């Protein structure tokens, strides 16, 4: 999420917003999955959507195939409609932004978790390693707000809009709610083929590698293919654009609105080009081929947001947020995590990578944070904890203390050992999912020192 390089003023505004957000009820109690393996895995999404005249409405069809990686037969799957998180079930006059109908390949139940979860019962139990698919019609209405799934003037942003498979693992079904800030997402990497039929007046940046051809008169068909990604996002509008290739060979496609200054665009491109190559050398080569930067100077109430192969950037007056969002291509994108239960595993890591890229002074970083905001605060708290009366702690702990803790760890291990450990950690969880326990094991393996006191001091539980 939003970069906190220049965090003092933005922190106050963000904290105020978090305190005003309504609480969200807890999700239904998950049913246990005995066999531990995250399932359904190896998803493949095939999507075809048609836009209206200005990209506010998209309708079409989606098919998702998947494998059961658990030895327990799979009797149902859960599809998350994350785009309904803010609006919930809507009203009779204004329905939810994301709607599915005409389900095939299974029997749908009623929507739950504020209309963000749809359970589909399979016609027969799916055995271990067997594969099947479900399909449904999709209707998307872009909400009238400046947001990662929202609109601003002639521009439409469709982040977290596509229905995605939820995960089951040893903890059960992951049907956590969208709490209104941060991220609650937990998905496994998969393949996407998304065909978008839209008016030719709309420029459509998207996750993956995109090819375009003429459709019906006045329309263009954009086909985007992405492999090994956890989500798919796109935008639509009369964007201006420019493409460059970094010295490391990554193609950057910049898209910006009519009011966005070229100074902001150039700053974003410069930071993106430098950081994507630097992080590639440090953590492992960027795997998605190209990267789209969708920029606007009007996202100040929202900020910036990462998606695989596409980042939505507010061109901040003081600096670009590109480095932090591009760091998320590795921490959340390549190395996945359950963002509801362990938000520090992506936000703290992205903040650490950003501060390291800018070579910010961090020697006294941890001590500068002062006292913990509460006795219950810890780096490893979930989004549920922050939503339940601790919202003011979220930024202070996850971004600020989290980044500082990783810099402290680097001082304990030494620079070379930390770099080798981090590269190995990324390699070992490449396009997979990591946990706090995984990271602690990787760090402990990098030193003969007992890191127990370090974890306790930094409340990495």
Automatic annotation (TrEMBL):
Keywords: Metal-binding, Signal, Zinc. It comes from the Bacteria. Its cofactor is Zn(2+). Binds 1 zinc ion per subunit. Transmembrane segments: none annotated. InterPro entries: M1_LTA4H, Peptidase_M1_dom, Peptidase_M4/M1_CTD_sf. Residues 1-27 form the signal peptide. Zn(2+) binds at residues 324, 328, 347. Residues 286-457 form the Peptidase M1 membrane alanine aminopeptidase domain. One of its GO terms (molecular function) is metallopeptidase activity. This is Metallopeptidase. It comes from Streptomyces vietnamensis.
């Amino acid at each position: 999420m939003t970069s906190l390089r220049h965090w003092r003023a933005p922190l106050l505004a963000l904290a105020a917003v978090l305190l005003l957000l309504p609480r969200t009820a807890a999700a239904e109690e998950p049913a246990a999955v005995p066999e531990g393996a995250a399932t359904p895995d190896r998803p493949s999404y095939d999507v075809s959507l048609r836009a209206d005249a200005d990209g506010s409405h998209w309708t079409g069809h989606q098919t998702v195939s998947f494998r059961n990686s658990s030895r327990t037969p799979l009797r149902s799957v859960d599809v998350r409609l994350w785009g309904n998180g803010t609006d919930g079930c809507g009203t009779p006059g204004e329905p939810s932004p994301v709607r599915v109908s005409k389900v095939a390949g299974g029997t749908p139940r009623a929507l739950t978790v504020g209309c963000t979860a749809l359970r589909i019962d399979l016609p027969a139990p799916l055995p271990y390693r067997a594969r099947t698919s479900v399909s449904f019609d999709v209707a998307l209405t872009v909400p009238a707000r400046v947001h990662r799934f929202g609109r601003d003037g002639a521009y439409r942003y469709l982040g977290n809009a596509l229905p995605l498979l939820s995960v089951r693992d040893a903890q059960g079904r992951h049907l956590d709610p969208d709490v209104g800030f941060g991220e609650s997402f937990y998905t496994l990497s998969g393949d996407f083929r998304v065909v978008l039929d839209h008016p030719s007046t709309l420029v459509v940046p998207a996750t993956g590698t995109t090819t375009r051809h003429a459709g019906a008169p006045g329309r263009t068909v954009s086909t985007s293919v992405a492999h090994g990604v956890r989500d798919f996002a796109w935008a639509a509008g009369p964007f201006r654009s420019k493409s460059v290739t970094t010295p490391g060979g990554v193609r950057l496609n910049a898209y910006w609105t009519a009011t966005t200054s070229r100074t902001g665009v150039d700053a974003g491109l410069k930071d993106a080009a430098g950081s994507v190559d630097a992080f590639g050398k440090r953590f492992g080569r960027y795997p998605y081929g190209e990267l789209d930067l969708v920029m606007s100077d009007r996202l100040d109430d929202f900020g910036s947001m990462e998606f695989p192969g596409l980042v939505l950037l507010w061109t901040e007056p003081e600096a670009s947020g590109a480095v932090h969002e591009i760091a998320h291509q590795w921490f959340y994108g390549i190395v996945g995590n359950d963002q509801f239960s362990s938000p520090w595993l992506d936000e703290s890591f992205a903040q650490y990578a950003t501060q390291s890229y800018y070579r910010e002074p961090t020697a006294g970083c941890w001590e500068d944070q002062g006292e913990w905001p509460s006795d219950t605060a810890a780096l490893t708290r979930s989004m549920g904890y922050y939503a339940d009366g601790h919202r003011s702690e979220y930024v202070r702990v996850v971004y600020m203390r989290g980044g500082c803790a990783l810099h402290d760890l680097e001082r304990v291990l030494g620079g070379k050992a930390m770099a080798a450990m981090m590269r190995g950690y990324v390699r070992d969880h490449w396009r997979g999912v990591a946990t706090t326990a995984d990271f602690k094991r990787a760090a402990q393996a990098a030193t003969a020192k007992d890191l127990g006191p370090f974890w306790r001091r930094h409340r990495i539980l």
